[in-house]
Amino acid sequence: MSEPKSKPDPTKKPNSSPKSQSGDSRRGAIAGLIIAAVILGVGLWLARDLTAASKLQDCLMSGRSNCNVIEPAR
Predict the structure, then answer these.
(1) What is the residue extent of each domain of the chain?
(2) Which residue ranges have biased composition labelled Basic and acidic residues (predicted)?
(3) Please, what sign has the CA dihedral across residues 74, 71, 40, 28?
(4) C-beta of residue 67 within 8 angstroms of C-beta of residue 56
(5) Is 38 within 8 Å of 30 (Cβ atoms)?
(6) Distance between CA 68 and CA 52 in Å, rounded?
(7) In sequence order, what are the residues at sequence separation of 6 or more whose Cβ sits closer than 8 angstroms to the Cβ of residue 67?
(8) How far is 67 from 24, CA to CA, in rounded Å?
(9) Residue 28 and residue 40: Cα distance in Å, rounded?
(10) Cβ atoms of 70 and 63 closer than 8 Å
(11) pLDDT of residue 48
(12) Cα end-to-end distance, the chain, whole Å
């Protein structure tokens, strides 16, 4: 027959302390925040680059030949 399961001893301390779990969750949150910031930066860069390419393509499709961006001298 099966033996009855023993109850955990309330005087024993748990193996992991709450402080280490708190540090792990903060580390994960900070890593997630950094990853989100990198994805946001890449997304903004990509959007700006695609917008510039779209404007150049629209200019070329309209039949113009002087579609280069002229930057002012400093």
Answers:
(1) 34-62
(2) 1-12
(3) negative
(4) yes
(5) no
(6) 11
(7) 56, 59, 60
(8) 53
(9) 18
(10) no
(11) 95
(12) 91
Question: pTM to 2 decimals?
Answer: 0.54
In degrees, rounded to 5, the angle at the alpha carbon of residue 24 between the alpha carbons of residues 23 and 25 is: 95
Q: Which amino acid is at 40?
A: L
Residue 29 has which token pair?
Answer: 């949150």
Tens digits of residue pLDDT in 32-74: 999 999 999 999 999 999 999 999 899 989 988 888 777 778 7
Give the model confidence (pLDDT) of 15-27 as tens digits: 655 555 556 678 8
Q: Residue 30, Cα to own-chain centre: how many angstroms?
A: 10
Note whether 60 and 68 are within 8 A (CB): no
- Can you give the pLDDT at residue 3? 60
